[in-house]
Amino acid sequence: MIRFVTGNEGKVREAREYLNDDVRQIDYDYTEVQSDDLAEIALHGAREAFEETGGEEPIVVDDAGLFIDAVGGFPGPYSAYVEDTLGVERVWQLAEREENRRAHFRCVVAYYDGENAETFSGAVPGTLVAPRGDGGFGYDPIFEHEGKTLAEMSTEEKNAISHRGRALAKFADWLAEQ
Ligand code: ITT
Ligand code: NA
């Protein structure tokens, strides 16, 4: 059993496609260290959550962000804060004024079991567009990849191309070898 530490059910839904029933969501609020390195944030969180939950079961933490080219990678590691404060619609309005609307999502899955500390990362390129679709979560409605926003995709379709799907696929491969 792996404990997936997150307040975000969308992440867990996507992870279940790779880890099946072996994943249980726990909503422990680990410290998100100030860093522009998603792997550092995630691994720090995984170690802290492992200690805080008694150190008995392996922990997974997922740290992700939206990086917009025209504004120097903003909001990047601050994506959750920006979603809560500005909101997705206003992030789109920011991008709308730019000629270059390219962006990418990045995700790092960090695993810690008291012995092994591993990180797995993934990225997906796309273009920011006016919101479309009601699937997914977060910035999915404004992020288009090959003609569809991520919010217009099923979980399976999104996983096949997404930052998280790529990171989870690497993680699942590694796990199978253990
Ligand atoms: P936890 O930290 O509790 O796991 P969170 O939603 O705060 O949940 P992050 O710190 O990783 O997650 O913040 C990432 C931000 O980027 C947040 O606003 C998410 O909604 C958004 N995000 C992450 N993955 C995404 C995805 O696959 N599609 C769209 N938005 C995503
Ligand atoms: Na968070």
UniProtKB/TrEMBL annotation:
Catalytic activity: ITP + H2O = IMP + diphosphate + H(+); dITP + H2O = dIMP + diphosphate + H(+); XTP + H2O = XMP + diphosphate + H(+)
Residues of the active site: D63
Enzyme Commission (EC) number: 3.6.1.66
One GO cellular component term: cytoplasm
Coiled-coil spans in chain: none
Assembly information from the UniProt record: Homodimer.
Protein name: dITP/XTP pyrophosphatase
Lineage: Archaea, Methanobacteriati, Methanobacteriota, Stenosarchaea group, Halobacteria
